[in-house]
Design brief:
Distance between the termini: 35 Å
Helix content: 25-40%
Strand content: 25-35%
Number of strands: 5
Amino acid sequence: MPARSAAQIAEIIARAHGVRLAERTLREHLARSGVSRAAISADPAKAFGRYEASRRNEIWIGDVLIGPFVPQPRKPGSKRAKLFVLVDDYSRLLVGARWMEEENTRAGRRSCARPSAGGSTRDLLF
């Protein structure tokens, strides 16, 4: 069940953005959007920030682990290895994983690639 009241949310907005909202105005906007403690408590599976796949391959979650310096022991020019991992939310199966030197969009896309049947090109897993 949500722990923050409309007054607390209004205070957070004021501190973060310097905008003052009346508690009543905020409560009315939330109610119009269907957001209320009663509505969220009635169906906890639909609470904000929570999701769960209902079948395999519906949602894949990606994460990056910052690993050790390579080559080891660390010397000038060593870089940290990054482990990119894709996990199927429903089955928790590791869909793919690859060690990379970079942590950016290009490295993430390459970590999601697999060799194609021809071996010289790459297909994205998704």
